């Protein structure tokens, strides 16, 4: 079962160059070398609430994430990272369905939604996601690439990921009548709704 370990932070303005070098030369390669987690994305939040830098990692299991967190190497990296950032948060995400999680290989932009599903609306929500949300968003040009439950970390407790090759596709989707109607219906089944548009930070390239 693939899981995600997501880290969020803001970079201290006076440490930007030092941060970029540390992330590219130490933090990402040394985490990848542990074998417990692979860093697959680093994102800047272009629209939506912060923190504004997001590091996305995938692991084969919750046990592997736990193994990473116990390593002295990771503790050292985390300690050094905190001299360069502020507002650190992290989340452990596990698959929630009905969208199977994938990691796009091509460069992409992300359009993510997060919310809490209302308890007595869960069956309606699952049917809505399968029958309406997933196909309509893809018709609008945003491929849905995962639905995740926040097992550990701050809420809201559901994260739904979308990806597309350009920001203009996201903006066109947001401005469409179909998206407005889709969101209105979704809001009858969830609360705490929010969204983020995320662009590649470039540190993996």
3D architecture notes:
It is a single chain. With 205 residues, this protein is of the alpha+beta class. It contains six helices and eight strands; from the N terminus they run E-H-E-E-H-H-E-E-H-E-E-H-H-E. It has two domains: 3-94, Alpha-Beta Plaits, CATH 3.30.70; 95-200, Alpha-Beta Plaits (2-Layer Sandwich), CATH 3.30.70. It is globular. The two termini are 27 Å apart. 29% of the residues are buried.
List keywords for this structure.
Alpha-Beta Plaits; 205 residues; alpha+beta; 8 strands; globular; 6 helices; eight-stranded antiparallel β-barrel
Structure in a nutshell:
The chain is built from six helices and eight strands; from the N terminus they run E-H-E-E-H-H-E-E-H-E-E-H-H-E. It is an alpha+beta fold.
CATH class value of the largest domain: Alpha Beta
Main sheet strand line-up: 1-3-2-8-5-7-6-4
Number of helical stretches of at least 4 residues: 6
What is the count of structural domains? 2
Global outline: globular
Q: Please report which band the strand proportion falls in: under 5%, 5-15%, 15-25%, 25-35%, 35-45% or over 45%.
A: 35-45%
Which secondary-structure class do the elements indicate? alpha+beta
Unreliable stretches (pLDDT < 50, length at least 5) are none
Chain-averaged pLDDT: 95
CATH topology of the largest domain: Alpha-Beta Plaits
Please provide the ordered H/E string of secondary-structure elements: EHEEHHEEHEEHHE
Give a short account of the largest sheet. Answer: 8 strands, antiparallel, barrel
Radius of gyration: 17 Å
Distance, first to last CA: 27 Å
Helix content: 25-40%
**Strand count:** 8
CATH-derived architecture of the largest domain: 2-Layer Sandwich
Name the quaternary structure: single chain
């Amino acid at each position: 079962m693939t899981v995600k370990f997501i880290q969020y932070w803001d970079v201290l303005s006076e440490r930007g160059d030092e941060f970029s070098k540390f992330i590219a030369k130490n933090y990402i390669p040394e985490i990848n070398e542990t074998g417990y987690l692979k860093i697959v994305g680093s994102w800047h939040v272009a629209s939506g609430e912060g923190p504004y830098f997001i590091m996305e990692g995938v692991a084969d299991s919750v046990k592997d994430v736990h193994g990473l967190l116990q390593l002295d190497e990771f503790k050292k990296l985390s300690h050094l990272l905190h001299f360069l950032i502020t507002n650190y948060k992290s989340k452990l995400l596990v698959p929630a369905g009905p969208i199977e999680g994938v990691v796009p290989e091509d460069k992409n932009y992300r359009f993510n939604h997060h919310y809490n599903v209302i308890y007595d609306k869960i069956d309606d929500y699952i049917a809505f996601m399968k029958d309406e949300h997933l196909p309509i968003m893809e018709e609008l040009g945003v491929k849905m690439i995962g639905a995740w439950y926040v097992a550990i970390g701050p809420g809201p407790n559901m994260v739904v990921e979308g990806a597309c090759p350009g920001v203009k596709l996201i903006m066109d989707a947001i401005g469409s009548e179909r998206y407005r109607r889709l969101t209105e219906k979704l809001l009858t089944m969830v609360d705490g709704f929010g969204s983020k548009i995320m662009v590649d930070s470039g540190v993996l390239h």
